[in-house]
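Researcher: Re-running this chain for the archive, since the previous output was lost when a drive failed. Same request as before.
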Amino acid sequence: MEIEMQGLMQHWPLTVDKILDHAARVHGDAEVVTRRLGGDIHRISYAALHDRAKQVSAALMAQGIRPGDRVATLAWNGERHMECWYGTMGIGAVLHTINPRLHADQIVWIANHAADRVLVLDACFVPLIESIRDRLPIEHYVIIADRDAMPANDLGALCYEDWIAGRDTGTPWGGFDENAACGLCYTSGTTGNPKGVLYSHRSNVLHAMMALGRDVLNIGRNDVVMPVVPMFHANAWGMAFVCPAAGARMVMPGAQLDGASIYELLDSERVTMTAAVPTVWIGLLHHLREHGLCLPWLKRVVIGGAALPEAILRAFEDDYGIEVIHGWGMTELSPMGTLGGLMPALADADRDIQVRQKLKQGIPPFGVELKIVDEDGEELPADGNSPGRLKARGFAVAGGYLDGDGGDVLDADGWFDTGDVATIDNHGAMQITDRAKDVIKSGGEWISSIDIENAVLSHAGVANAAAIGVPHPKWDERPLLIVQAEPGARPADHELRDLLEGRIARWWMPDEIVFIDAIPLGPTGKVNKLKLRELHREGKLRAPLN
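Model: Regenerated structure tokens:
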């Protein structure tokens, strides 16, 4: 279509360096508080962090880093990690966050695939990197540490503080196309090699602006935000950009994510909003109950990365008066896809109805489009009862993977297949019923493993649960329920079946319930069903509970 008239607005490229520029200029006194590896608390203003990020830029340029080069980090949430983010991205280099929970062989693979030239790492990861150093492409190592705490190492590494000391705080940022590559994050690679999701400056800025919305993260300058979700999980769900854009005070928990450590920071720093996967909140709730504590400052908790158990939602909202926001997304969505909440039509609904709605993954904000399709690619109705493959498109949705891995990932109309099976109801709320690769198909019909798991997790004696499909001679597959009990607890088989009765279709009832000491988790904290299926094939799961 030929455009007859152009607008007369300024050209203002959407590059992420502008976010920290804004934070330093308008919210310069707002703090970023970090619990460092040694346990000490460090405080820095956005203005000072901005200057130090500029020094990181100067240090990288002195090492020959230019636009498009990859700079990797292997670090927990902290202010110096943020300095590396903006210092790298500001000069047009690509910041590659590495998940330290990956297997060493996977770290080697992604570092080489990304062609990382510099690695900035927390001191606690030095032994890991020393063990694989000869297999890495890294030219320069920098250890995040103070001079007097610099660990001995065989990497020839520089001390972070020496690396940036005396560098220019006026290194120019920006000046490149907003579609330039900005960040790189790899999928966990539970099947095959991980794939690189390459974010652009434009996608990250637009994602941050979307996340600021009232019905999304709703973060403002009066908030104190603690991103417990690591920065190597898709930009800490975008909060590494959202908080400075809003001017919100940040509290970085570092590596200590146990219930007692999380509570201490939430209380002492008067945190108003926080975000993490369900396993973190299980630990916090145990600590609160054991010690009779409360959280007078905390207003809302964003929970994502895995299905939200009803017991956690009710505990936060009913026992502690804290709003729970259930979120869903994935690395390929930058990562936010939907946020839970109630539509006006349900404002006065029965509490049980509201809870069922809030347990859904939620409603896509402006900028994300979703649809569900059947096996023939035909769109299914938004009636809440028609599960199908979930597809997405939007300004922050991946259009492909680094180096073309995985081939063409979009269909003819530009939709990305998320790999999830879901429904969408008449309120527009999406609910994941399974991963396509995890779906249990019995007698030609789908069974939702997530519904089974969530019901069982409401039992006080259950610490974690997973349902998987196992071969059956007549029905193709039948559900097997695997339970990890709380220490000292041993739920009876009939108790768990009673919990499921009435909550799931009768033919969904698991044929067997087995007990194991610990359900295996993947590198992002999700249940590793691939490993569970492997254990079942090898006959290594224990006999039924009763």
